[in-house]
Each structure stands twice: as structure tokens, then as C-alpha cells.
Amino acid sequence: MTWFAATSRTLLLIIVSACVGALYGYPQEAVILVLLGISGFSFYQIRRVQLWLQTPEKMPPDAYGAWGDILSRMYFLQRGSLEAQAQLQDTVEYLQDSFAAMRDGVVMVDANGCIKWLNRSLEPLLGLRSPEDTGQPLTNLVRAPEFNRYFLAMDYSTPLQYLAIGGEKPLYLRVEVTPFGKAERLLFVRDVSSAVLMEKMRREFVANVSHELRTPLTVISGYLGTLLMDTKAFPERYVKALTQMGQQAERMESLLKDLLWLSRIESEQYNSAHDAIDVQGLFHELRDDLAESHPNSVLVLEISTDETIFGDYRQLYSAVSNLAINAIKYSPEGNPVTLSWTLQGDDLCVQVRDRGLGIDSSHIPRLTERFYRVDDSRNSATGGTGLGLAIVKHVAAANDGQLKIESKLGEGSTFTLIFPARG
Ligand code: ADP
Q1: Which of 90, 300, 389, 391 could serve as a FRET partner for 400 with CA atoms 20 to 30 Å apart?
Q2: Quick one: average pLDDT of 288-312?
Q3: Percentages of the chain per state (helix, strand, coil), in multiples of 5
Q4: Would you say 306 and 280 are in contact if contact means Cβ atoms under 8 Å apart?
Q5: Per-residue pLDDT at 66 exceeds 90
Q6: Residue 109 burial (CB < 10 Å; 0-12/13-18/19+)?
Q7: In whole angstroms, what is the distance from residue 95 CA to residue 316 CA?
């Protein structure tokens, strides 16, 4: 029954009671009696609703008038919300089950940094216990300064990899954080020790092979040099062959030198020197060295900051010199190459710009791979090893920086080493 019908019925009852009461000479008393009856009935219905609301999953009691309509609507709303809640609970349980079954460690952290939930795989990785540690601040329980620094910095654009030494044996862990909801975070923690070990073995293998090859190669190029000092002793065709052997031996020597340097920077990645570097002095030293090795080069220096960066001078020198030599190599002779040292916002930038051949954008993402060449003809003319930019990228990473490459075919290239400025 609708509200309108119920109200009309009540009014009718009052009017009829007033008329009947008037017949007997007590109209007011009759109306009061009827009003008391209606109120009593309403209180009775309210009580029934109250009792039903204590166990709302049961069917609502039978009710009369508008009460019946209200109760059945409440019941349907209640049913709908219970079903939605059950569905949500199912989804949460399904997600928790799948996270629980993962081989990676998973931990959910609330906006205050306290643990909400963690899976079993995480326990040996971070030394946590479930459910005892639930509700505790994560950074109070993980005793690794790198982890805590990364977690609190709130910049999760790149994953963290660190050596965790608190557990039964040292482990290399990779941590990825995904923020969600209201500043809650989901952390995936993976044991990458075997991958790191393989990578270390590969590095050591390359370093050892390069090292072992150096001695015989030095002997070969030494003898070739001696033989070529007296070219008259050989027929013309031997001289040509010996000259080519000498050039190739020289190329192999620079390859081995670059390979050794690369594996050294890679192995120093986590403990490079952190000296204050005088970039201006570095530029001047490089200009003097290039004046000797590349006498036709034109180097322009632009220095607009006296800020210092902290890192390894030898490594940074090798990176900037690789970039400058590339800029000279891949530009028409005599084209100016600009080295600049600037503060841009929060970043300190070492930039090497040329107006040379430029690089097609399709090559740029792969340029820093070892031995990647834009095209072989370009390379055979310049005699590069294909390792220069790989070295530059690793130097940047080992010194908390990054390498940015911008280039347009036919217009020139800009290589920028970006380092964070310290306060
Ligand atoms: P390479 O020893 O061959 O120079 P790099 O790793 O230093 O090896 O460079 C990779 C490739 O990138 C080069 O072969 C060259 O084609 C291209 N390249 C690097 N620097 C420049 C530049 N400044 N201008 C044009 N091309 C460049």
C-alpha cells in the first residue's frame, strides 16, 4: 500500500470515528481513542522492524499498510547489498589466493606504511612472519637501509635491486612497488640471486678471456710493428698484408681494451668512487688530449655552472671522451663539437652536441647495446669498436646518472649525461 493510500485510510478512520463519536455525544474522545490506537499500532510495527533488523538476512515480518511496502523495499535493498558484499569478498579471496600461491613474495602496505597482508613466499625473503607482523610498519621490520630509503622515497619508477644479508644466506632481491588506492602499496619481491650470479660469471668470463688474449696480441702486434719498420726487406704484396694485419691487430687491441674497461665499470657499479668531480677541469683536460689525437677537431666549451658532481673521475672522463670522439668521428671534418656543463632544474647535465651525420630515430633505443652499429659502412670507415656507448651508459648508471640520446638524421646529435644535483 502506498503512503498516499495509507494516509487517506488514516484520515478516513479519524473522520468516521469523529462521526460515530458525535452520534453518542463523545466526538473528541472517539478521535483520541482512534489516534491512540494508530500510535500503538505504529509503535508495535517499529518494534517488529527493530527485531527484524537484528537478523536482517531472515524474511521480514508481515506488516500492514505502508509498513509492508517499507519492509519489503528494505529487504530487497538489504539482499542486494549482501550479494554485492559477498561478490566483493569472493574477488578479494580470489586475489589473495592467487597472490598467496605466487612464488614471488607479495606484501600489501597501507597508506601509513603498515603491513596489511603478506604471502608465505615473502617470509624468507624479507624475514617477516605472517600473521604476526600484520599491522606493523614495514620499515621497522626490514633491516636494509637501501630498502627503507627506496620505500620511503616514494619514487617507484625503477625497481630496486639490492643485496640482502640479514637472512640465512645473502640474497640479491629485486623489489617492485605498485601504488594503488589511497596511497596503499603492493610490493613484489623476487630472489634474483641466480640471475645476478650468471651475469657475474658472464662478466668474469669476458674479462678473463680479454685479459688472456691481451698478452699474445701484444706479442703479435709488437712483431708486426718490428717487421713493418723495415718494409724494404719484403716483397710489395707482403707489405700490404702485413700492414693490414697490423691494423686489425690494433683494432683487436682497442676491442680488448674497451671490453676490459666495460667489465671493470660493470663490476664497480655498486662501489665506484664518489669523489667531487671538477667537470670544468675534465673538459679542459679532454680538449688538450683531443688536440693531440684529433688535431683537426674543433671543440667548443660552454660552462654555465660551478656545481660539482660526485663520482669516479676516470669513468666520467672515459664517458665524455667516448661521446666527444664519436661526435668528431661522425661529423664532417672541422665541424664544431660543443661540450656543455649546465644546471637544468634539479639536474646537472654534461652534454655533447654535434652537427654531423645524425642517427635515424629507429636506431636510438638500441645504440647502447654492445656492438650495435647504425650501419657497417659508417663503422668500417671510422674503425669504432661498437662498445663506446655501452661504456657511456654503464658509467652513467654507476655514477647515479642516466644517458639521454637525441638525434636527427642529417642534422646532428645530442648526448646528455644527467646527474642529480645535490641540494
Ligand atoms: P663505435 O665504436 O662504433 O663508435 P659506439 O657504441 O660508440 O660504437 O656507437 C654506436 C653507433 O652509434 C656507432 O656505430 C655510430 O653509428 C652511432 N653513433 C654514435 N655516436 C654518434 C654521433 N655523434 N653521430 C652519429 N652517429 C653516432
Answers
A1: 300
A2: 93
A3: 55, 20, 25
A4: yes
A5: no
A6: buried
A7: 47
Map out the domains of the chain as residue ranges.
3-91, 102-191, 194-268, 273-423
Specify the ligand 1 atom closest to the Cα of 375. Answer: 16
At residue 1 the predicted structure's pLDDT band, cuts being 50, 70 and 90, is low
pLDDT band at 236 (very low <50, low <70, confident <90, very high): confident
Rounded Cα–Cα distance for residues 351 and 342 (Å): 8
CATH of domain 102-191: 3.30.450.20
User: Cα(188) to centroid of ligand 1, in Å?
Assistant: 38
> Of ligand 1's atoms, which has the minimum distance to the CA of residue 415?
23
112-120's contacts with Cβ under 8 Å and 24+ in sequence apart are: 112/137, 113/137, 113/138, 113/139, 113/151, 113/152, 114/138, 115/141, 116/184
- What is the enclosing helix (H) or strand (E) of 185? strand 184-191
Mutate to test the pocket of ligand 1, among 251, 325, 326, 385 (most ligand atoms within 8 A of CB): 326
Closest residue CA from atom 8 of ligand 1: 386
Q: What span, in angstroms and rounded, lies between the C-alpha atoms of 394 and 399? A: 9
Q: Dihedral of CA 336/341/343/349: which sign?
A: positive
- Return the half-sphere exposure (C-beta side, CA atoms, 13 A cut-off) of residue 192: 17
From CA 302, how far away is CA 277, in angstroms rounded? 17
Architecture of domain 194-268: Orthogonal Bundle (1.10)
What per-residue confidence (pLDDT) applies to 53? 81
Task: Please identify, by atom number, the ligand 1 atom nearest to the C-alpha of residue 386.
Answer: 8
Residue that wins the pLDDT comparison between 423 and 250: 250
pLDDT digits (tens, 9 = 90+) for 171-210: 999 999 999 988 899 999 999 999 999 988 998 999 999 9
| DSSP E strand boundaries for 263-335 | 275-277, 298-303, 309-311
What separation in Å is there between the alpha carbon of 72 and the centre of ligand 1? 77
Pocket-forming residues, ligand 1, beta carbon under 6 Å: 322, 326-327, 330, 354, 356-359, 367, 372-374, 378-379, 384-390, 413
Contact 398/269 with Cβ under 8 angstroms?
yes
Architecture, CATH, for domain 273-423: 2-Layer Sandwich (3.30)
Instruction: State pLDDT tens for residues 23-41.
Output: 998 889 999 999 999 899 8
> What is the distance in A from the centroid of ligand 1 to the CA of 32?
102
**Residue 55: what pLDDT?**
80
